[in-house]
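Risk mitigation, structural track. In case the binding assays with iron/sulfur cluster fail to produce interpretable data, a predicted complex structure has been prepared as a fallback.
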Amino acid sequence: MTAYSHLFTPIQIGSMKVKNRIFMAPMSTHLANSEGHITEELLTYYEARAKGGASFITVASVLVDRLSRYGTFRNLGLYEDGQISELRRLTDCLHKYGTKVGAQLLHPSTAALSQYNEGCQPVAASPVEARAYPELPRALTCEEIHHFVRLFGEAARRAKEAGFDAVELHCCHRHGLLGNFLSPLHNKRIDEYGGGVDGRLKMPLEVIAEVRKQVGDDFPMVVRMSATDAEPDGQSLIEGIYIARQFEKAGVSLIHLSNGSLDIPWKTTAPSGIPQAFNMDLADTIRRAIHIPLGIVGRINEPWVADMVLEQKKADVVYIGRAFICDPEFPNKAFAGEENQIRPCIGCLRCLETVNGDGSICCTMNPRAGRELQLSNEPKYCKKRKLLIVGGGPAGLSAAAAAAELGYAVTLTERADRLGGQMYLAAFPPCKHDVAKGTKYLVERARIMGVKIELNSSMTKEKIMLAGFDGVILTTGAEPILPKSLMNDSRVVSAQNALEGKCRIGKNVVVVGGGPVGCEIADFLAHPHFDGSANGRKVTIVEMDPILEKEEKTAARALLMERLIKKNCTILTGARVQSVSGTELIYVKDGQRKQLSGIDTIVSAIGTRADDTLACQLREAGIPVRNVTGTTNILKAVTDGFDAAYQIFAEMAGSPSTNES
Ligand SMILES: Cc1cc2nc3c(=O)[nH]c(=O)nc-3n(C[C@H](O)[C@H](O)[C@H](O)COP(=O)(O)O)c2cc1C
Ligand code: SF4
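Fallback model:
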């Protein structure tokens, strides 16, 4: 028996019976090789999710046209018969676990940039650029449209021959050729393929008919669509209902419902702060208008949420994306009632940022994601070896759990009276609460793995040597830097102390530094609703660079900026603090000295500096040591901590343990 009876009820999709209702959403991995061929890494990545209990896996972004590579060369394709046998390896592998497999067929349209496609200009309904892909596409002629319709049909036929149980047509997010034709924001045509919703639907419906012709009436066909474009003058909900109905009439087996578009990515792949299952009401509306099953996607991260969506009859299946990157065993753990052991997705979007930047899939909370093959040849246990981890932040906790898994007897010492380091504080600003779930998981994981934890404990070389550790991983993080101009002023506090409530914050605050920490602390300190009253806190950010958070590429940035503006924060970019005196701060902008007056508190958020003294001392003493420094974000901290455990294991292999009897 399971507590999640709705999730673990089989479902019939056309001719396909699926064992449970947890479907894996399509997510590009960039684990194919540079010629677009399948790799062992890709097979192992998907296999881990099938083994973990996914009932249906959608293999993402399978291209229907050779010259439509999407942000990289490393996409799979079904545009040649030669590709059938290699994708057959993937479907055979996933079928071993009773998992059904769908191929998401895509022509990326505006995203198929010429740099990846032998100089060919992207094609679209109309010459309208997508903000996310800065290259002007050219409009297809009607003859060309017929050609692309055929390409989809042929790819579907190959998918069936390769052993896929279904195809999914990507008609979503005003992305890809079909999503592009559907959206009034992109499709400005005045011929039969444009105008009102019927014109915009013509190409997707022709593709559906062609696919049916190629795969037969019984073969399950999923259409992924957006309920709305979520933008002014975009596809409306009433159109969404109509579109879903036309897809049903055309013979589609399942609607996979998302919302919004790639140009407003916080609506499609939403960051933390957006409620779980946020597409629920849209799904409910569309589901009531159709008679075929509907799947919902969007921040469904916990089994109780997924089960409740089904129990409330908002959808027939749940598509889970990032929670599967984080924990391939999500379904099995949910079924077994081990939900507390599911590694939580913290909605940080580093996975998508990396893939969009042409990297391969990775995850802040799961250092194995995308590296399943590499880490499957795990080293042998190193029983009796004593390893010390100094520092109880994300890097230390991650290193400790990994080292304990490798068989070390692990002690973790932390100078403070709590664990979590900077990650604990990262959950304090608005829309960051998911980080607390992540920190809690890392702490629990270390405990479950038997790590001995000592708080309020500072380590020195002498103490370490006396305790007889075989090796040490240092993850002591870094101390906040105070700029010279701000030193010795009693009004100046560090961002860390301000977040943790260790100091009083006045009404008129200046935050020095407009990177992620500075912007988030401004968001934290500014009162949620600015009404100009005497009680409101005035927050000013002073940043040297011309823009705030210039390195941040995730969708969370746009929402943070929107909140800062709504809260009436003053943003001074291209401005350098020169001096502070009394309640005045002098800064230079555009070569001119300017002044902020009446300041109560100055929060310094200009960065941190690591100290490697202990690492040098231990190395001199001949103790195997790894120093995890430069961990600029949680992804890097967790991954580097994890890797340090493996590296020190490799370094120590062969050397005798001081504790060997
Ligand atoms: C790394 C990554 C890659 C993605 N790639 C695709 C893709 O190739 N095709 C697609 O339709 N959606 C893609 N998506 C969107 C997901 O299918 C899904 O809609 C989104 O992540 C929201 O679901 P979630 O909140 O459960 O993660 C991707 C998302 C992520 C995080
Ligand atoms: S990188 Fe962040 S958002 Fe992506 S799956 Fe991992 S925890 Fe979730």
